[in-house]
Every structure is written in C-alpha cells, then in structure tokens.
Design brief:
- By secondary structure, the protein is mainly beta.
- It has one domain: Jelly Rolls (Sandwich).
- About 15% of the residues lie in helices and about 40% in strands.
- The strands form 2 sheets. It has a 5-stranded antiparallel β-sheet with strand order 1-2-9-3-7. A 5-stranded antiparallel β-sheet has the order 8-4-6-5-10, with no helix packed on it.
Length: about 200
C-alpha cells in the first residue's frame, strides 16, 4: 500500500482517531491535534445517514468551523427556554474519551430546549459554530464527509460539555473503536480517490 502521499504522522493520527465515533457509521480521523487547533475528518456511512439526528443535541468546549467536502448536512440549533415552551430534556455532562481521565455521561438536571434554526449545507459550503451553541446534525446524503477545524478550548479539559436527551443518556456500546494502521490508511486512500481530494489540499485550508 502506498503511504508516502498521505503526508501525515500515522502514529499521532491513530492515537486520536476512532471508528464509530459518537454513532455507528460515523468514523472520525484526526489529522492534527494541538491546544491551538485540531483538524479532523468525519465520514458518515450506512445507517447514520438515515437517522433523523446523528447525535443527541449538545454543546462543545471549543469554537469550530465545518467544511462540507461531499454530501449534505443539516445543522439544527436549539436554545434553553422557560415555562411551557420547547420540549423537556435531561441534561448530562459528557466527558469525551479523547481527553485524559474517565469518559462517559453523568446526569445533571432537567431543562427545556426549543429548536430555533435548521440550515442545510452542501458540498463546498462551510459554517461556523460557537462552543456555547446547542446543536445536532442530520446527514441528508449518503457518504457525506465533513472537515472540521477546531480552535482552542473555551474552558479547561477537565470541564465537561453538555448533552441533552429526552430520556436516558446515549448508549456507548460498540462505539469509540480504534483503527489499525492498514484500515486507517485504506480509509484515507479511498477518500482521496473517491472525492479526488488530496490530504495536502485539506491541510492548507
């Protein structure tokens, strides 16, 4: 297998990348990870492209920009509301397996969320997200690929982000599986050939 054209540190990429990341059929390849900026590819395949939402509504610990490399994504935004507006949710703290220490969900409180926007983005478009915005995404086209440029943390690694569920915490069984070297390089090579996009061009965004 040809590897020289990938121009990445494979060991570092393997350390921070996951198959079935957050949801089955969502593969996450981290091309670069640092405190200042992280670059990552999200691949959406199989059942995840038919789900009304890929993941539960959530916020983040960082601001980021999303670039649609192929396919179509719908970004859905929510806000906290009082009284009888919106829908009831349970709020959980989420500690990602990407960071040191224990990972998983812990219940915090109940609240209400109201959907405030749905925007569709197609190949070649981009959109920014602020760390405090609550959102989820729907994949509107099979084989959608997103490139995310994640900026420095808005608050420390030890502070969790929030995930919102109408019921129990999301299940993590069968998720966060590791790539091996061959499967990682095969995934990237297939990506380059299918889209005609070289990794070197992505790293220049």
């Amino acid at each position: 297998m040809a590897r020289s054209n990938l121009r990445i540190n494979v060991e570092e990429v393997l350390k921070h990348s996951f198959r079935n990341f957050h949801a089955k059929g969502l593969d996450y390849i981290c091309l670069r990870r640092s405190e200042e900026e992280t670059w990552k590819l999200y691949f959406f395949e199989g059942d995840v492209s038919r789900s009304p939402e890929v993941v539960f509504p959530h916020d983040h610990r960082y601001n980021f920009m999303t670039y649609v490399l192929s396919g179509t994504v719908e970004n859905v935004l929510y806000k906290h509301v009082d009284g009888n507006e919106g829908e009831p949710y349970n709020r959980f703290h989420w500690r990602t397996p990407l960071n040191p220490g224990p990972s998983g969900f812990s219940f915090q409180t109940t609240c209400r969320l109201k959907e405030i926007d749905r925007s569709i983005y197609v190949s070649g478009q981009e959109y920014p997200m602020c760390w405090s915005q609550i959102h989820t995404i729907r994949i509107a086209h099979h084989d959608t690929v997103l490139f995310l440029k994640q900026y420095e943390d808005a608050y420390p690694i030890g502070v969790p982000s929030n995930t919102y569920s109408r019921g129990d915490a999301p299940k993590t069984d069968g998720l966060y599986q590791r790539f091996d070297t061959d499967s990682l390089l095969a995934k990237l090579s297939q990506f380059e050939k299918r889209l005609g996009i070289h990794l070197s061009s992505i790293l220049e965004f």
